[in-house]
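[Automated response] Your request has been received and processed.

Submitted sequence:
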Amino acid sequence: MASNAPDPDAPLSDEEFERGRAAVLARKARSATGLSQPAFAARYGVPVASLRDWEQGRRKPDAATRNYLRVIASMPDAVARALDGAA
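Generated structure:
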């Protein structure tokens, strides 16, 4: 009987690999803050659904967002202060 499940030994496509890297980056950024997904999304101005999709590897953020996540991962408090002061 044939299975519809993907072959776990099949190599990842370039797109799957990039989504996986983006998922690690999104989780790393959120982990640096210690915030829940909804709290992170509210503090840093990203849709919670997008954050969820990035963390689960369903979607890849664009280049600017990936860079934003890198900055948040490196300096979460400084980014939050900058955003607070921008209002």
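Summary generated for your ticket: The radius of gyration is 16 Å. The helical segments are 14-33, 37-44, 48-55, 63-74, 76-85.
If you did not submit this request, please reply to this message.
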